[in-house]
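Final report, Chapter 2: Outcomes

The project's central promise was a pipeline that accepts a single protein chain and returns its three-dimensional structure in a standardized token representation, suitable for archiving and comparison. That pipeline is now operational. To close this chapter, we reproduce one record exactly as it appears in the project archive, with the input sequence first and the structure output second.
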Amino acid sequence: MVTKMAINVALVTGGASGIGRVYALRMAQAGIQVAVLDRDEAALADIARQSVHITTVCCDVADTAAVNAVVAQVGETLGRIDRLVLCAAIMPTDLLARQSPQLINQIMTVNYCGTVNVVSAVLPAMLDRQSGEIVIFGSTGGSVLMSECGAYCASKAAINAYAEILIEENEGSGVDIMLVCPALVDTPLLQQATQTSNPKSIQYSIANKRFASPEYITDQLERGLARKLKILKPGFEAKMVMWLRRMAPGLLWSVIKRSNKK
């Protein structure tokens, strides 16, 4: 019989919008003290008004020193962090040949290095007490590569690899780590994509409603944690494209190229 871990304090990065917001509010409704990290001060002010169990901190996860300071602050004010949820990401799109190296590096720094910064600040204490939960949001985009999303896909490929190795290295430690790899989700990341190069494949997915809701992903996340899954591919779309990437990459590329022409 699996004993359910008591979660009193959670930290959510990118928690002022999208999946992070939905999950932060759901945890707060359950009485969990939730520290929400984000760079959007207006969105942070809005979510803070939703629950007395929400504490907000404006923080850039790419800033290692700032992350370390925030994690220490959360520990002092709310108590030890029982659950860490990493949702912070950016997704400006364009052909790689047109994106500046500065922007490509920024995407990698926020998405991948930001994940590493926060995990590195929180994980040691969890390992010391042999308890805790970490949810890392990678993406099917780390395996299922899409034109005009090269920098984002590269950052998510790095996260997927980092998370999977982290999971295996810490198996049996008492810390449950789960990698979540959704397909497209209706979050501000989609808006970033449409407001930059607006890839036709994403236009097609939006027009045909081929994306999941943050609420659905959160439902699947909770089930995955309850089952102590290592890797969660929420929904048929995520499972299908990951299978195609593994078994028929050429076919998948042809599908992607056709969608780019529509």
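Archive annotation: The radius of gyration is 18 Å.
This record, like all others produced under the grant, will remain available to the consortium after the project formally closes.
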